[in-house]
Hints:
Blueprint (H helix, E strand, L loop, with lengths): L7 E7 L18 H8 L2 E7 L5 H10 L3 H4 L15 H7 L4 E5 L14 E3 L27 H4 L2 E4 L1 H23 L6 E5 L8 E2 L1 H5 L20 H10 L6 H31 L6 E7 L18 H4 E2 L1 E4 L8 E8 H12 L13 H5 L9 E7 L15 E7 L2 E6 L5 E4 L17 H12 L4 H25 L15 E2 L6
Parallel strand pairs: 1-6, 1-8, 2-11, 3-4, 3-6, 5-7
Antiparallel strand pairs: 2-9, 2-10, 5-16, 8-10, 12-13, 13-14, 14-15
Amino acid sequence: MASPSRPNILFIESDQHNPAVIGAYGDPVIRTPSLDALAARGVLFENSYCASPICVPSRTAMLTGQHPYQTEVWTNSQYLHSGIPTFAHSLGAAGYRPVQIGRMHFNGPDQLHGFTERHIGDHNPNHLGADEVDHGALHGTAGPSRISLKLSGHGLNSYQVHDEKVAARTVEFLDDYANSDSQDPFALAIGLMLPHQPFVATQDDYDAYRGKVPPPKNLEAFKDETHPYLKWWKSHAGLEDVTPEEVERTRTAYYGLVTRLDTLLGNIFSSLEKHDLLNNTLIVYTADHGEQIGEHGLWWKQTFYEDSAKVPAIVSWPAQLPQGKIIGRVTSQLDLNATILDAAGAPPLPSSVGRSLLPLIANPKSDSWHDIAFSEYCTEPGDPAHSDGERSWQNRMVREDDWKLNYYHGLPSQLYNLAEDPGETHDLIDEPQHAKVALHLTSLVLDGWDPEWVERQIREQSANLKITVPWAKNTRPADTIRWDLNPDWDYLDEPQVP
C-alpha cells in the first residue's frame, strides 16, 4: 500500500462539466453528493481555467503542462508528438506504473503517451478518417450544432453507457489492487464522457430536475450579440433563434447527466473507502472545459466566457492536505499537472509551465502566487464545425487578478472586471479609464504567442490532413485501443413526457 509520503494517484477528468453545476460550487439545485463529499475532504479551487475550451488541446495541455501553442495542438484534428513527455511519463520515471481507463481523445498511433496500460478507450477511431462514429437516432448531436438542442430530453446517451463501463472497470482495478497486497502505490487516470452532449438523460435523471432548473441568468442581455466574432459564431452554430422549450429541455437534461456522472464517481469513491484507500489517495477532479448551458445565449464550449473556460478543480488527500478548504486564487489546469507530480515526488516535466498548488494550499494568501491563467481557442480552415471556408480563427484569453481580456486576432478584444461583473455583461474594452489595463493584458496575451505563426502552423497541419485522412479512410488501420460505441445506445424516448 502507499505510504503517507508517497500517495496513490487518482486523476479524474470528465468532459464538458461546468463547475457552476456542482453543489460544492454553490448550485442550490444540482445534486452532486459525491463531488460535494470530495470537496469536503479536500480543497476546492474556485477560479481554475482550462488551457483551451475544446477537447483535444485541453487534454493535451493537461497531460503535458504546456500551453497549446507549445504542444502545437490547437484543434481536435491534431496529434501530440510522442517525444513530448506527459505526467504519465514522469510518474513512471518515479516508480509508478500509470494506468488509464476511459476517455483520453488521443489522435494517431500512439494511444498511450506514457501510460503502461489503457482500458475501455475512446469511442472515436485512433486514426482520423478511419471511420465515423455512429450516434444512431441522435446523429449530429455530439457536435456544436443546433440539432443537439432540438434532439434533447430523456432517453439514453451512449456516453453514459461508456462511463458506466469505465466506472465498473475502475472499481475492478481497485478491487484487484487491494487484493494484491501490493506495497507500491497505484497511479490511475480516469477519463469520462459525461456530461458532454447529446443532451439526453435517462427519464429518472431527467424527471429529477423537471421544472426545477432555472433559466440562464443573462440570456436576454445577449440576445442581440454585437461582438463580430461571437455574432458570427452564433449564426454559424444556429443559435440565433433557440426556443424557450429547447432551453428548458436541454438544461434539464444537462443537470440529469451531471447527477449521473456524480453517481458513477460515488461508486469509485466508495470502492476506495471500502478498501481503506481513501485517506492516502491523492484525488484530482477536473474537466477538460465547461459548458455554456445557454448563458450569454451560447451552448457547448468554444468561448472564453466563464461557463466555457472555467473548470472544476478539487484536490483531496486527507492524509496530508487540509479538508473543506476553498481557495479563490486564479489557477490553471496546468497547475494540477504540476501538483500531481509534486505530491508523488515525481520529476517535474522540463517544459511544463504548471505550478504546484501545494504551497498555495499551505498559504492561500501567498504574495508569491501570480493570479494568472491563459486559454487558447484556434481553428483550422475547412473545419465545418468550427470555421467556414478557408477562414481560421486565432483567439486567446488571459485572466489576471480580477481582470479578463479575450483577444480575437484581427477583431476587437473584450475586457471584463470579474469582481464587479462576474456575469461578463459589461465589456470595458472601449472605456478610456481602462486603456492601460487592456494594453497590459494584451501584452501578456502576445508575449511568446504569435497569432500569425499559429495560423501558419495550423494551415500546414491541415494540409497534411489532406493526405493522412484519405490514407486512413482507404487503408482502415487497426485501432489498438477503442471502445465500441453501439448506435442503439443513442435515442430519445418516444413519446417525450411533456
